[in-house]
Each structure stands twice: as structure tokens, then as C-alpha cells.
Amino acid sequence: MPRLPAGMVDRPRLTARLERGRAEPVTLVCAPAGSGKTSLVASTVPAWPERVAWVSLEPSDNAPERFWNIVLVALERAGVAPPGSALAELAAPLDRSEGVFAPLLVNALAELPEPVALVFDDLQYIRSRPCLAQLSSLLVHLPGAVRLVLIGRSEPPLPLHRLRLSGRLVEIRGRDLAFTEDEAAALLQAHGLDLGPKLIRALRLRTEGWSAGLRLAALGLRGHADPEAFVTQFAGDDRTVADYLLAEVLDQQPPPVRSFLLRTCLLDTVCGELADALTGAGDGADTLAALERSNAFITPCDGRGEWYRFHTLFARVLRTRAHAVLGDEVRTLRRRAADWYAAHARPAEALKHAVLAEAWEVAAAIVATNWFELYTSPYAAEVIASIAAVPEPWRSQDPVLAGALACAALDRGDGTDAHRHLADAERAAASLPDDHRERYRATLALARLATARMEGRYETALEAADELLAEPPGRGREPSRERRALVRARLGETAAWAERFDRAEEQLSRAIAEADGSGLDQLAISARGDLAYARVLAGGPASDLRCADDALALAARRGWVNASATASAHIALAVAALDACRDEPCRAHLDNATVAIAVARRPHLDFALAHTRARLAGTRGHPVEGLRELEDWEARHTGGSTLVSERVGASCLRARLHLLAGRLDDARAAIDPVLHHTTPIVQVAEACLQLAEGRPARALETFGAHHQHDVRPLPVIERGILEAVAHRQLNDAGAARVALDQALTLSARTGCCRPFVDFAGVHLEGLLRDQIRAPTPHHKHVIGLLGLLAGNGRDTTPVAPVLEPLSDREQVVLRYLPTNLSNREIAGELFLTTNTVKTHLRSIYRKLNVGHRGEAVARARELHLIGGSSHPGPRERSDRVTPIG
């Protein structure tokens, strides 16, 4: 909460109106700059019994993540977000999670045990549509224990009209804040001035009661030889006040103070030590305190009197004069500010001032020294904007700036731009002396790692990662935890796409531990999703995919539902559900992944999404729809970076979809260009075509005498089925039984049943029935597969639909019902009150049309809302796939 300026006076008529506002949900204090809005509220709310969370806003706070982070921090500092509460777990929204943040915030505020007043100061700075939409949602659904106080120079574009019509909005406007003659007299007396009624009346009329004008007049009247002449000449309008600030405030200051003001006004906020760094003097803290005591339009902004800021109008006037008077010295001052911020571990501010100072070498050094901290910070976009503001040829001739821009290009999926910047970076680094080249090593290595990650070049990624994880020469300490987390996550992801699943498991597990320990929640979520994806590819649906549920649970607690970081977790669960013949959960996760991936800028995930969507369409009898999914993917990445494995995978799936549509010629045209890639997926696609063309012997020749190595169960199972079908067509029942038994063994272990459904049209059912008649360890599994084939891979039992869709929170509560946890224990797991859990349960029972918990579990399983596990909470997958047999 801001400190009050010197010379504050009591204004009972206004404090009484604010008190009346405590009985209504919203109070609006709206008036021009300098009207005393902030001072009025700040002098009144400390006496309220409610907790007060004060949010001071600036023009740079328009990004939703930054805006709501400030709000959540203010609530935490007010003491209304105890550890473990839903409010404490909530985090500022990320990208596409903006739409779900406001409801989660409303729910969290509704659970507060005591009332709170949430004050938004300088709300006129917030103009972004997402922030205003979320704030509007909060206002409309405001919990009863929360009061909003909105302070701004103009009325915010929020739905206040309903409150106004219903009399539930208390308003204090500029005309209300204008000082009366009695209040003006009290203000002047507080400044040590004793003017007669005539001069007070004249001054009040000239300023129209404007607080800033009256305070300026008070400053000018101190020691003035002729108060009457001063009042006669003084005008309180904005332009005249600006002229007055120069002529009667700045120019009347002693030269040392005037010099101090001109040099420190370049900063948004200033403390004594920073002021000393700019002025070269040693009295910065004393000067700031003296200016604040004299009410010289400078106010403390941290509650401790260490950091100060200038009044907006005064700062604008001062900066204009500073550029006119100081000239090139302004750049020197910016450079000093950059050095001070860099030395005090505030690299983002240091970079901003280095760029404004046009000190390109300093900017590059700041980025080189702090790149990992800047790259993983919530304000990375602002950092990139500062780097992008560096002009050519500096950007391309400095290796660290070019390397940073390469990382940014890779994050937005622009491989062409990334290669250009990386080439610039490596060319510039090669020309540097050895002692200078080392400082740029980490940034260039990160850019090379990111490039290798995008292109699936695991060995190159490994080299870059080893360089990044090595102890920095000459520093005598290990790389930071943030660096280790980021590097291991990127390396593990690359290993997964390169099908180095053991390395992926190792690196991603270590990345998760590092990210959890560093508070890097976004990285922790995406790494868990990548780990789940690697596991489902390597081990099928029966793999331990709790890490995906953990990722989504963490995202839900933070309010980041369907944020970009959740994309890989949704895709992993979609693939697991598809391979286990659970189409509806697959579709649901694909829909969530589509929202998340729109801003994920991870091309490989986009391929996985399109590939899985196309597979789902094909298995549901819509091959043309699947072909369109692949065409759309290709269109999105025309001219971009795609892996060879992705292009081959798309061609193989396209051939199989053409076969499903009865287009043999199109299937042949799709597969022929990739036949030189003798990978299992190519062999499977070619064997499918050979069987469709009536050539079972050629199908067997496609696979060769020895099994092509593949670490993924899916193509191995597919090969076994196709070999069994081919042997059957060649009347070799023994060979068919052996091949099918191998496929069944792997299917039973991994839970991967989809290939049996996909190939049901090639007389597979007869083979499975033959397998039952012969001695087999997979008798139960085969029975289950035959049931799937009878239902075309889906549960065909007619089930009445849910009366009304469950909310996100109700679905989370539902997952705990199969456990032995009591309502109180479920509440503890979810950071809810027991009453809130009971409310959710009543709604769940109503929507499922059941009477008690056991019926709800049975009904939810019928509807595939939960799986068959007895522990389906967030720590174990709710759509767990149990192998048949």
C-alpha cells in the first residue's frame, strides 16, 4: 500500500462515502490525475476490518500473466492466501488458459475464511482485452466476502451498469474529490501556510479544488514575498501546472537538487543507492527522503521508504527537460543504470536501460551472463523485445544477441529464422578472441540444442547439452538448477522423438526434479507430459502414465488448463486411449491438445496431434477425414522444419487411409516414395498394400527373414498380425499361430489392442478363434479382443447420456470416488473445504441420476468418465488401461 504524502488532511465527507462502499460489492473512484484518488483510499482502508490487498498498476502490466501475478502477490501479502489453499495454489494464466482463470479465481476467493478488499490503483493503464474480460468475469461473479475498489483516471470498460442500476455501486468522481474552501484551508495550514479567507477562496477557484494544483500552490507560496500576487498569477490547469513545475518548482531548487531530479527522473523507480550510481554523489537516500517530506511530487512506492517514484506529470516534464539540457549525457545515465541493475541481479531492467543507452556491448554481456534466467523468466517476451530493438548490424554481428534471437525463433516454430540467426551467431563467435568467446558459449549451445531438438538430431543435441551441463570454466561452481532443468528437459524431449527412450526417461525424470526444486512450473508440466509421451510410445497404454495426470493436476491447480505446457500430456493420454480402443477419452484429450498446441510452438507435437487425429478418424471409418488432417498438417508446415521420420510416418499413414477408402492406386503413390526407408512402419504399410493386392508371399518378403528392430510395441504387434494373416492365406497354420502368439504376448503386456481392431477386416477374427482352440497362455486376452472386434473396437452397450456435463472441478472430485478416501480427506487432497466437496457431490449425483457414491462410480465407469482402477485420483491415471488377459 502506498505511503501517504506529507500534509494529508482529514476529509470526513469522502471517507464516509468510502465507508458506505463497504456495504456494496464495488466502489469506483474515478477522477483526473492529481485529484487525490490514491491518497484518499490509502488513508481510509487501513482502518477497515477487512484484509486489504493493494494492486498498484503500470502501463507494462497489460499482459494477463503479469497483471494477475501482481493481483495474486497482493492477495498473498494481505495474508488471505495461506499455504495449501486454492488461492495459494493458483497461478497467473498462461496463453490459452486465460478463459478458465477467472472462474478458478472466483472459486478460490469464495473459499476465503474472512473478507478482503481488493484495491486496483491506476486501473486506467489496463487496456488489454484478455485482462478486462477476466476482470469483468470476476466482477460479475464476485463472491460475497470480496469488495472491489477501482481507482482510475477514466471509467474502466467493465460491466458496472448493472451495479449502478441496482444501487450496488458506490462512486466518487472528480467533482467529489475537488477540495472545498474549508478543506483547501486545512491543506494549506498543513503546509505551514495561514492565508486569509479571500486568498483561499481565490486559490480554490483558480485550481477548481484540484488537489495537485493546490499542493503545487502550497509549494510556491512557501516563503513567497507577496502571496496575493502569487495567487493572482497562478492557474491550476494541466498545461499551466507543467509550465509552473519547470519555472517555479524545478528552476527554484538549489542546483544540486535540480541536477539530482534531472538525472534520476529517467528511472521508473529509484532508491538511494541507484540515485548515487547515476549522480556520483553519496546522498541519494537523504535527498529522496527530503524531497518526499517537502511533498515535491515524489512518493514512496514500497512501503519501507527505500524506493520512490515521481508523480506522472512531474516525471514527464522532468524527462523532457533532461533530454533538452543533458543531451548525450542521458545515454551515459542509462548506461550507469544498466550497470547498477546488472550488479544487483536485476538483468531484465539492466537490459532495458542498456538498449535505451545504445550500449550494445553491455546489452550483449547482460544477455550472455544471464540468458538462462532471462529465458525462463515470466518476462521473457519483454526481454526478446529489448533484444529485437538492437539495430543491425549489431544484432547479427554479436553472437549472443543472434543466439538469443535464434532461441526465440525456435520457440515460435520458425526454423528458417532460427537457422539464419544461428548462422550469424556462429560466424560472429568464430571471429572472437578465445577469452571473449567463452562468455557466449552457453547462449550458442542453447540455440544449437534448440535447433537439434526441432530437427530431431539427438547426437547434436547431446553434444550441446553436455557443453551446457559442464561446469563453466573459471567459475568454480556448477550450472544453476534452472539451467540444468531446461537443458535436461530439452535433451529428454529430443531423445523421445529420436526414440532413445532410455535416455528420454533419464533426462526428463531429472529435469522434473530440477524444475520442481526451482519453482519452474511450466517446465515441470511440459517435461512430465514429454515423459508420458515417451513412455506410451515405448511401453504402450499400460505404461505408468501418472506423470501425465500429475502434469494436468499441477496445471489445474495453477489455473493453466489447456495452457501450451499441457499439450504433450494430453497427446500422451490421447495416444494411450487410442491404442487401448478407448475412443471417447482419446477424442477428449485431442480436443484439449488442439487448444493447447495452438500456442505451444512445438512442431513435433503438432505432428503427433495430426497423426493421432488421422488415426482416430481412420479407425472410426472416416479415412477421408483422416487424410484431411494430414493435408492440413502439411499445409501448416510448408517450407518449415519437419523431421524425416514425420514425413515418412505421414506417408505411411496416408497409404493406409487410402487403403481404407478403397484407393489402391493412391495408396501405392503414397508409399512408393518412402520404400527406401526400411523401418517397421514402412514395412507394415507396404505389407498392408501387398495383402490388399492379394500377394501374401510378397507381404512376408517385405518383412524379411529377421525382425527389423523397433523399440515401440505398436508396429511390432502390427507386424505379427500381418504375418499371421499372410501365413494363413498361404495355408501355413503353424506359422500363423506362432506369429499371432508373438503379437498377443506383446499386446497383453502393453495393453495395446488397437492393431487387432484396425486389421479386423483381414479375417483376423478367425485367426483369434483358432488361437483359443489351441493351447495358449493368452486365452482371456483373446476373449477380450474378440469382444472388441464384435463391437468394432468400441463398447457398444447402450448407456443413457449424462443429464448435464460435469464441470472441470466436478470431474476432479469424481476421480476420487472409487478410492477409500472420506469427503474430508478428498477435500484435503484438493485444497477445498469439506462443504465444497459435498456441494460438488450433490451436483455429480444429480447429473449422473444416481443416489449415492457407489452408484456414481458404476455410472461413471459406464460412461467412461473414469477408468476401472480403484485409485483413480490425480496421482494415478483415471483412464488407466488394464491389459486384457
UniProtKB/TrEMBL annotation:
CDD domains: LuxR_C_like. Residues 799-864 form the HTH luxR-type domain. The keyword DNA-binding applies. It comes from the Bacteria. Coiled coil: none annotated. InterPro entries: P-loop_NTPase (IPR027417), Sig_transdc_resp-reg_C-effctor (IPR016032), TPR-like_helical_dom_sf (IPR011990), Tscrpt_reg_LuxR_C (IPR000792), WH-like_DNA-bd_sf (IPR036388), WHD_MalT (IPR059106). GO terms for biological process: regulation of DNA-templated transcription. It holds the Pfam family WHD_MalT. Keywords: DNA-binding, Transcription, Transcription regulation. Signal peptide: none annotated. Residues 866-885 are annotated as: Disordered. The keyword DNA-binding applies. Residues 873-885 have a biased composition (Basic and acidic residues). GO terms for molecular function: DNA binding. This is LuxR family maltose regulon positive regulatory protein. It comes from Solirubrobacter pauli.
